[in-house]
Amino acid sequence: KNKNQISYSSAFGKTVLDAAKNNKDFVCITAAMEIGTGLKDFSDKYPNRVVDVGIAENHAVTYGSGYASSGLIPVIAIYSTFIQRAYDNILHDFLLQDLPFILCLDRSGIVGADGPTHHGLFDINMFISMPNIIISAPKDGDELRALFLLALELKKPFVIRYPKGDSVNFESNILDTQKLELGSWEVLKKGANCAILAVGSMVELVLEDYELISNELGYQPTLVNARFVKPIDTSMMNSISNEYDTILTIEEGMKVGGFGSVILNYLNNASYSGKVKILGIGDQFVDQGSRSELLKDCGLTSSKIIDAIKDEERK
Fold it and tell me: How far apart are CA 15 and CA 31, in angstroms?
């Protein structure tokens, strides 16, 4: 691990601060989480472009839709677990009107020390059924910035979910940012037999143990960074379904109604004849513990990936 690495919250904070220099069309909104979400520096520099509505997430969203209808893009920074309070507001005040917003969901996935009330495990399955919405998850801080810049450019309802903790890679120069295309995935390792579709934080988990996984399987699987949960990369999905006997999805969110279920549904409609394995959080609340302990408890580990793939190959 890079000891100087900054957190995702800081990467987000630097991203908005940078983007604000050349873009006057967005305003930041938070709900009593200005420091936690990394907005402190932005707030110091642009006090007129940040609004903290206090502990009222549903109000933060509806208030933001007012900005959106008057031509400004609201950048709403809230912990994933607390956006659950604004389900209706997102649907009713933004999506029905197809108004732009950038919803930056900090602490998505397992948060460790803060316990069961703070795990951000329900955002994917909450939003995935909503029309007019884009859902994304960066593999690192650089991709967080690239997704944010794409969202500013697209002016659509756009969700970016990222975990609590280390942003893996974050270069401070905004000019070096890769330009992303909506719905595009990225092949990080090209291999054979099995394709692993990893969402957000799970990309790094697979990359860190890629050699171990390959050694255990006896071949190198293909690793895809599925940075868009909605819309999915259909052209890549089509080529993957033609090329691989096994497809494994892994996400730091609920298995029921999550990314994996969308992939399964897509493959079923495409009459895919291979095997599909879905790794995610089982149908229960996740308790207190360190992040690594809880990932292990929830089966989000490289050894579980190996077991799941070997299990399918034996059948």
Answer: 19
